[in-house]
Amino acid sequence: MSQTAPSQSAPSQSAETVPPSATASVDPASVDPDEIAKFTAMAEAWWDPNGKFRPLHRFNPVRLAYIRDKLCSHFDRDPAAEQPLTGLRILDVGCGGGLLSEPMARLGATVTGLDAAEKNIRIASLHAAESKLDIDYRHGSVEDLAAAGAQFDAVLNMEVVEHVADVGSFLGASAAVVRPGGIMVVATLNRTPKSFLLAIVGAEYVLRWLPRGTHDWRRFLRPSELAADLRGSGLEIAEMTGVAFNPLTDSWRLAPRDLDVNYMVLAEKPA
Ligand SMILES: C[S@@+](CC[C@H](N)C(=O)[O-])C[C@H]1O[C@@H](n2cnc3c(N)ncnc32)[C@H](O)[C@@H]1O
Questions:
Q1: 200 lines ligand 1 (CB under 6 A)
Q2: Which of 44, 252, 256, 263 has the greatest count of CB atoms below 10 A from its CB?
């Protein structure tokens, strides 16, 4: 595949991805202070592969490969290239400690990592410095970025939407910062009896992968609800795929037709 993107999907050449004043107010509708306090209390654990964020560490390979392949396909890049995402501006919303921001930067992308928990941003910045990666980490909300007119080729919304207060405000602002011709990837949990059993009872109470109370099942979104919100924000749904855990191999895999528990949505903004 050629590294030359077609005009419909070519990243624009803005010198500055996000105006410096665009973040730091964190009381917009999407931000739930109780959720932010919860993540602040766990912030030291972000980079411990066997700690409180172990599930995200285990989940990372499959979602990274998915995101890389979808970005390469959409922007006409060679996924086998060493840095196939060079020149693409990516916003990692709710970046936490940077588990996704760092590999995206290694793949060549110009990454902005945004989180409403200031301590996460401090931990992420320190880790990026240790890893010698240049990532623009911001404490703030996506509503602030949208109000400032920021634009990105791709917006990653991975495991965040189930933690926000006002989903409409959050997804509307996230969609607003996708540039025309750009894409958004959302990963979240479905609201089904199976997800209650596996993601709440199993993960938090039986296996204790996650601290109790990490998730509120009532906040999980059905794929149809998420799709309706994304369409209402001006995006088109390109694809939905499930992600399933195999306890025998302790690993995750894409399960395209099984959206019962974990799933990802790929959405595009018309050019
Ligand atoms: C489960 S973690 C996911 C972290 C990261 N996206 C990943 O998948 O590795 C959710 C993150 O979203 C952040 N968050 C929650 N609500 C937010 C909001 N409204 N705006 C920005 N960040 C938010 C939390 O502080 C936390 O770091």
A1: no
A2: 263
